[in-house]
Amino acid sequence: MSLQNSNTQAQRPSHPNPACGSIIDAQGREIEITEDMIRKACEDLEKSRVELAKKA
């Protein structure tokens, strides 16, 4: 049994701050979910909850 050398390198994420997972957009492209995306979603959710609480 022999080991073969491979020129394949680990693929680097397209975004410097990847989280885990991906989503598929309307055009069928795979988009990595990043930490920044998660932070923004959490901030937007928190903001909407605060606005709802003010209305109540």
Automatic annotation (TrEMBL):
Residues 1-23 are annotated as: Disordered. Residues 1-14 have a biased composition (Polar residues). InterPro entries: PA1571-like. It comes from the Bacteria. This is Multifunctional fatty acid oxidation complex subunit alpha.
